[in-house]
Specification:
By secondary structure, this protein is an alpha/beta fold. It contains 17 helices and 37 strands.
Length: about 725
């Protein structure tokens, strides 16, 4: 019996789906699936073929019930299949500020005592020093002999302990500390996410404006500048003035230089140890001009870059809330970094117990991280002040279950750069070009280019992030002030040669750039959501969506402000906005130039634009994509809510990753996915790998998945390339 017939025979066996561990169709022969795999990765092992690493971040305190905590750690590592323990050093509540060399030693001697015991059971050791600049003062002060220059905020307030990144004394202190850490030959030294210029309480948000920095700003400006003048120039409303570039260039180059210093310091001591960066929201890192390539290459010092992107849920969120922010933050983080970066996303249950986050949601975060192409996961699930693993929390069994699926999905090589779908355009240097409105805070330099990722994610529409490279005949999406980072000719090409989704902020930006004629617009103005002018939106032209003719949607509740547009030509309106007196006040969703889909919202939407999420809008948007894009239409999930689909072109095969972020149990799913060969289709789920056979049926232009999708479930469908 050949392999194909065997798989078909399996699909007909019994009353449920057939499972197979090793025998799979030819197009999947490079993806061995063995549920019993327990292999440990060796230090330095990288690449998509490496196992899925469980990295436990843990705080043990020297000589504080150390033997008892070590025994609990060893037991937990065995039970939960932990591959690596990243010891968090002098963390949070126990942090006394910048540790002196004498204060460092007890922590490292403790690690040296535990490290061989971990190694004996196949677990490697990493180090996670808590502070570089210092997360926040929290009453800490510099210690005797620490002659560090301290950070100064835009208002002139000086920190009591947070260091200025230009300070040569602090730099030498940190360099020596990393050299000492490297002497333990850890697998990874993690640079915690205080390696940034913002969010250093109690300072005002963003940047350093100490005398040393003002000297550098003055040097680059070619004349003396004072703090107040410089800050005002950086934030000047309207078009950026030269101080903006000076601020961003200085910040950008400073952090790259620091990364190189630390990466080289470690490399001089041990060639095998990697230096990884913990990072947060890309939008806020953009405020300081972060050079992702430069920083990560600097830390890696010739090895593969290592990054821990933020997973946006320290405490348990609702599934829809998590999916929205996962799309806007975590997936953008994965797109920002170099393609060979090893991603170990941040699973943090703060403040560290099941009172913060359930085991079920913890598992969901691990399994859904496959959408980032994750090489593993970092887990901060126990507290930071010395209690160690607490077995009564019951994490071990859930972690083993989650790892089984995570490893199977990793073997598929679901890398972000192999994704297909609506291409959400982003600019890593957006803060250089965006315009501010109020000019009061550095947070105004954070771009808002990820709106469509959040929206398409919850609407069941496949999407991915891309930088502009002259795409033609593709389906693109832009939001915020993205177009300010392009030249006029590029904007014209983008809008004339592609199908493009634009939100209100993107439309308004084009008007300010004098390019509204590209959209067939005479003028557009923002109207406040609570003004009464936009009350509801109604589908026009007798069209039927979600089974309703003349369907209505809110235009005032959690939609954000309404962009009232006056069109001049070549526009088809699909809905109109009306006030509380049932009088038309302007157009709703429209298609311009037969290729531009316009959504007149996208600014100031509270609670993640909940008001825009509606089955009628989902049906309308999906129908427009099917109509305009044809065989280029992205994969779509019909009649779902808060279920994401991610599509991948894997060469000889195609894959769809399904993520149910809702608590609804779908007995079947309806998908629109062009060019998929359903013969020998495989489903990879937590139970195993199974041949779908009759559980995947084609009905017209749709695929019907009869195996369904449970609440908070993640699974992959794999097809041979049609």
């Amino acid at each position: 019996m050949n392999r194909r017939n065997f798989c078909r025979r399996l699909a007909k066996t019994g009353s449920g789906l057939a499972f197979t561990a090793g025998l799979v169709p030819n197009f999947l022969s490079s993806v061995p699936i063995k549920a019993s795999e327990t292999s440990k990765a060796q230090p330095g092992q990288t690449g998509a073929g490496a196992p899925f690493l469980y990295i436990l971040r843990l705080a043990m305190v020297p000589d504080f019930h150390e033997q008892e905590r070590a025994e609990a750690l060893l037991s937990f590592c065995r039970e939960a299949e932990i591959d690596d323990v990243a010891f968090i050093l002098w963390a949070e509540e126990l942090n006394t500020g910048h540790p002196t060399p004498e204060e460092v030693e007890p922590w490292l001697r403790m690690v040296e005592r535990v490290k061989p015991r971990l190694a004996a059971q196949g677990v490697s050791t990493s180090l996670n020093p808590w502070a570089s600049l210092l997360h926040a003062d929290r009453g800490r002060v510099l210690k005797a002999g620490q002659k560090f220059r301290l950070m100064v905020d835009p208002d002139g307030r000086t920190a009591s302990a947070t260091a200025c990144p230009l300070c040569p004394v602090w730099r030498e202190h940190l360099r020596q500390q990393y050299e000492r850490l490297a002497q333990l030959h850890p697998r990874i030294i993690w640079v915690d996410d205080d390696f940034r210029l913002h969010n250093h309480s109690p300072l005002q948000w963003g940047g350093c404006f100490c005398e040393l920095h003002l000297q550098e700003y003055s040097r680059r400006a070619g004349r003396p500048v004072q703090r107040e003048e410089f800050v005002q120039g950086v934030l000047q409303p309207g078009a950026p003035q030269p101080f903006r570039r000076i601020w961003l260039d200085t910040s950008r180059e400073t952090m790259v230089e620091l990364a190189r210093m630390l990466g080289q310091a470690v490399r001089r001591v041990t060639p095998e140890t990697q230096v990884g960066l913990m990072s947060s929201s890309p939008a806020v890192h953009c405020v300081e001009g972060r050079d992702w390539e430069g920083v990560l290459r600097g830390f890696s010092a010739g090895q593969a870059p290592v990054n821990r992107p933020h997973l946006p849920s320290y405490v348990e969120a609702t599934g829809p809330e998590y999916l929205w922010n996962f799309s806007r933050i975590s997936r953008l983080s994965a797109a920002m970094v170099p393609s060979d970066t090893l991603l170990y996303p941040e699973l943090e249950n703060w403040p560290h117990s099941r009172f913060s986050k359930s085991r079920t949601f913890t598992r969901f975060q691990i399994e859904s991280a496959a959408a980032l192409g994750a090489a593993g996961i970092t887990m901060d699930i126990f507290d930071l002040f010395g209690n160690g693993p607490m077995p009564q929390e019951g994490y071990a069994g859930v972690l083993v279950q989650a790892k089984t699926l995570a490893k199977r999905l990793r073997e598929l090589k679901l890398e972000p750069r192999r994704e297909t779908g609506v291409q959400i355009l982003f600019n890593p240097k957006a803060s250089y070009s965006l315009w501010t409105e109020k000019g009061r805070s550095l947070s105004e330099l954070a771009p808002d280019e990820s709106f469509w990722a959040g929206f398409l994610g919850v609407m069941g529409i496949a999407h991915t992030y891309r930088e502009w490279n002259g795409q033609q005949q593709d389906v693109l999406a832009i939001s915020g002030q993205y177009c300010r980072g392009l030249k006029e000719g590029q904007v014209r090409d983008l809008l004339s040669k592609n199908i493009v989704l634009l939100n209100g902020d993107a439309i308004f930006t084009l008007q300010q750039m004098g390019l509204n004629e590209l959209l067939g617009i005479r003028r557009a103005e923002w109207v406040a959501a609570d003004s009464g002018i936009p009350s509801y939106e109604q589908v026009t032209g007798g069209r039927v969506y979600a089974g309703l003719q003349g369907a209505r949607l809110t235009a005032q509740a959690l939609t954000g402000d309404y962009l009232k547009i006056e069109y001049v030509e070549d526009v088809v309106e699909y809905s109109e906005v009306r006030n509380y007196s049932d009088v038309r006040t302007g157009p709703g969703m429209a298609v311009a130039r037969q290729r531009l889909i316009l959504l007149p919202y996208g600014r100031g939407g509270g609670m993640d634009y909940q008001g825009l999420r509606h089955p009628v809008r989902q049906a309308l948007l999906q129908s427009l994509l099917l109509e305009l894009a044809g065989n280029r239409c992205p994969a779509l999930l019909r009649d779902t809510a808060n279920v994401a689909v991610y599509a991948y072109d894997l060469g000889v095969r195609r894959a769809l990753l399904l993520v149910n972020a809702s608590l609804d149990d779908y007995s079947e799913l309806r998908l629109s996915s062009a060019g998929v060969d359903t013969r020998d289709a495989i489903e990879i789920a937590s139970e195993g790998t199974r041949v779908l056979g009759g559980y995947l049926q084609r009905e017209g232009d749709e695929l019907v998945l009869k195996s369904g999708l449970r609440p908070l479930e993640v699974k992959a469908l794999v097809f041979p390339q049609a």
